[in-house]
Amino acid sequence: MTDFYTQFSMGFDVTPEEAAWLEETYADPEWPWRGKHNSEDDKGFMMEIYPRSPHDLAKLHYWAHGTVYDGPESLAIFLQNFLNRFRPEGILSFAYADTCSKPVEDGFGGGGVVITAQEIWWFHAGDQVSNKMKQLQAQVLESE
Question: Is 120 exposed, middle or buried (0-12, 13-18, 19+ CB in 10 A)?
């Protein structure tokens, strides 16, 4: 049997106030931003907040990562809520990799997401490849 994973990791610097909100919201048992396939115990990603430098404990860094299918969706919605509250003009992004435990035809892929306070845009590697193939095939047909 082959196991499939969606892996991702991203981070950015935060203020102490932002860090407090991120931690409190992540720990909220009502967890409103769970992906549609995540269980009550699975938020879709893990997060850590730590000092950016051992020499300056006031500068904090947020790190989110995961290996579950709905993780990117949950994280994107979580970050959009963060942007709405703290950085309404901000933009965040991250990439993800769809992998599997052993080689399977068409078993690999990935993409990325760009997040603002108003919108979330998804980009999938498979779509990019398919669109390029169609474009090149059309050029070949035109030249015949």
Answer: middle
What are phi and psi for residue 112, nearest 5 degrees? -155, 170
The position carrying tokens 């931003």 is: 33
Local structure of 53: helix, strand or coil: strand
Instruction: Print burial letters for 49-70: b (CB count within 10 Å at least 16), e (below 16).
Output: beeeeeeeeeebebebbbebbb
For 47-51, which contacts have Cβ atoms below 8 Å and span 24 or more sequence positions?
47/22, 49/14, 49/19, 49/22, 49/23
* Residue boundaries of the structural domains of the chain: 4-143
- Prediction pTM value: 0.84
In this predicted structure, what is the pLDDT of residue 113?
Answer: 97
How many degrees, rounded to 5, is the angle at CA 127 between CA 124 and CA 133?
Answer: 145
Mean pLDDT across the chain, nearest whole number?
88
Q: Which residues of the chain have pLDDT under 70?
A: 31-42
- pLDDT at position 38 is 52
pLDDT, position 8: 95
